[in-house]
Amino acid sequence: MQEEDRVGPKIITAESSRLQQSRRQPFHRSILFIVLIAFLLRLAVITVGHTYRITPRRDHFQFGWEMGRIARSIAEGQGFSSPTDLPTGPSAWAPPLYPYILAGLFKLFGVYSALAAWVILTFNSIFAALTCLTLFRIAERIYGPAVARATAWTWAVFPYAIYWPVRVVWETSLTTFLLSLALLLTLRMADQAPRLRMWILFGLLWGVIALTNTAIVSMLPFCVLWLLYRLPRRAKQLVGAAVCVLTAALVVSPWLVRNY
């Protein structure tokens, strides 16, 4: 029997026992409770602290800065354009995902309105809270459950981790969640030789990351090379890695064609 065949069942058994153990835990000791507390804490800061009342100075420029300007242009039917104070025409100033989300909220709740600010800051807080889950799973795999709980609680209540989603209209919280999800998926894929569909899913995730924050894509080569180093049958996994990169490129390609 090959080494990977012996390791595979052990990994599945460990994963199953971990899931069974988490189901037996009372809710107040579960990771979902930490996620809920993290979200409610941020929601309370937004609502009670009135952080959704963003200053109107400089024509609401602090409401998303350049992304807010682009979102306003989209909502007003002028397309992905004018990231500054002047109508400068079509732009590729920022990746498109977050400005389009913000533009959709402007359409629903009003451009630069207090309600739109409350909703987008709540949106940020959802992903900030979900990051507790991804950090928990990463720490659990590397250090064990005790460190994982401490990590999740630290992220849930750390003031600086609360500040960004509740005050700043930017893609920071979404990017942080997506990157932590990519790192978690990398660790899971390293445990057992992934099938082709897992490589495709990995590529889709990195394509979404590229449409959110292009700087984070610099992590993709390191994740792929580390997986190729860890996984058996490297020649076979090379095909999966190539499919992953191709999938990510296909996700980003409409945006690149538009820019060109």
Overall mean pLDDT? 92
Biggest pleated sheet: none
Order of helices and strands: HHHHHHHHHHHH
Structural class: mainly alpha
- What value does the Rg take, in angstroms? 21 Å
Q: What is the tally of beta strands? A: 0
- The level of helicity is over 70%
Give the low-confidence spans. Answer: 1-7
Q: What would the principal axes of the Cα set say about the shape?
A: flat
- Portion of residues in beta strands equals under 5%
State the main characteristics.
260 residues; mainly alpha
Summarize the structure in short.
The chain has 260 residues and is mainly α. The chain is built from twelve helices and no strands.
What this model shows, in words?
- This protein has helices at residues 3-24, 31-48, 57-60, 65-75, 97-109, 114-142, 145-157, 159-167, 172-191, 196-210, 220-230, 234-259.
- Helix content is 73%, strand content 0%.
- The chain has twelve helices and no strands.
- The chain is mostly helical.
- It is flat and about 55 Å long.
- The termini are far apart.
